[in-house]
Specification:
Elements (H helix, E strand, L loop, with lengths): L2 H7 L16 E6 L2 H5 L4 E7 L4 E7 L5 E9 H7 L1 E2 L1 H27 L3 H14 L4 H14 L2 H11 L11 H13 L3 H14 L4 H13 L3 H14 L4 H16 L1 H8 L5 H17 L4 H39 L1
Antiparallel strand pairs: 1-2, 1-5, 2-3, 3-4
């Protein structure tokens, strides 16, 4: 596409998203199908040019803003089937998009300042204009969580999982923010659901793996905690918080009998217990611990597991003898 056409056709630069500079070349086109012609109706689309000479189209809703799923078309289809609508673009859509972005920015500003009721009003206003707006939906859910309204937050989060437009790399940080607040509210299952959605968008983000490990830890799911913390450290050993977390888990594994009983209980089985010990050793190495030292620490943990198992078996035998004694005396 020529630079002259880009200057006239794709002229709008929407407001920036939080923490991400966005410069898009966009405009509005119309498409008239045979059905539309009979009904004397046009369908309007926001069009974005992509780097590979394809075009993203998003339908303009009754409030004059793009909403819903995005479809991709080729340059040939775009050139032959769509018409430029500069008047509608200038008179309606630009204003609608600016107003929507303004509401989103005000909502985010209110939420950052703890003005949660004002934030809620702005997000709800944005959703009245575009019911599937990703930023507004995420923002409203976060606001509900910060207000402690878990029931409403869960409704919003269920909606997010149904929004196809939510699953884009630029929304990764929103899934992470969701997960953090869910974890803080004790919603570990939901938090993990959102963190994993974030990983689907970016499997190389070590922070997501760290937050998953922390959620598993707070839920008492030790093995999964160790597994995800190991993956975090393997991606970036330099995260100081992750290394401290690793040291804490090892210290807890050495000193916390309840945790060791869960690791080494007969129900776990010998093979799985061995897998856990291997994982603890692997986590230490990923954090930069010398292999020999990691092996020594893991052997100490194993010995303590075995000792606890023997103690528990002896205690059960004593309880059994006492029960039989009471039964015979009775």
């Amino acid at each position: 596409m020529s630079s002259n056409l880009k200057e006239t056709f794709f002229a709008y630069q929407p407001s920036t998203e939080k923490d991400k500079e966005v410069t898009e070349l966009v405009s509005v086109v119309s498409h008239i199908s045979e059905k539309d012609v009979r009904g004397d109706k046009k369908t309007y689309w926001l069009v974005r040019a992509t780097a590979d000479e394809m075009f993203e189209l998003q339908e303009i809703n009754a409030n004059h803003v793009p909403s819903g799923d995005v479809k991709i078309i080729s340059l040939a289809e775009f050139a032959s089937s769509y018409s430029l609508e500069l008047d509608y673009w200038n008179d309606k859509v630009r204003k609608g998009m600016d107003n929507l972005n303004g509401a989103l920015q005000r909502g985010e500003s209110h939420r950052e300042q703890g003005e949660l009721y004002s934030a809620e009003m702005e997000y709800e206003g944005a959703l009245e204009v575009d019911e599937d707006n990703v930023r507004a939906t995420f923002g409203l859910g976060l606001t509900y969580l910060e207000k402690g309204d878990v029931e409403k937050a869960q409704e919003v989060f269920s909606k997010v999982l149904q929004l196809k437009t939510a699953f884009k790399p630029e929304h990764k940080h929103m899934f992470n923010d969701f997960g953090i607040l869910m974890r803080k509210n004790g919603m570990y299952r939901e938090a993990l659901q959102y963190y994993n959605r974030g990983i689907d968008l970016d499997s190389e983000d070590e922070n997501l793996f760290f937050n998953i490990a922390r959620s598993h830890f707070e839920a008492g799911q030790w093995e999964d905690c160790v597994r995800y913390l190991t993956m975090c450290l393997e991606k970036n050993r330099g995260i100081e918080e992750a290394r401290k977390f690793c040291s804490y888990i090892i210290e807890k594994s050495v000193t916390d009998d309840d945790m060791l009983r869960e690791f080494g209980s007969p129900e776990v089985g010998t093979k799985l217990r061995s897998d856990i010990l291997s994982l603890l050793r692997k986590m230490q190495v990923a954090a930069g611990v010398d292999l020999d030292d990691a092996i020594e620490i893991t052997q100490h943990i194993r010995d303590r597991m075995i000792a606890l198992q023997e103690e528990d078996m002896q205690l059960k035998e004593i309880e059994k003898d006492l029960y039989n004694l009471d039964k015979n005396n009775g």
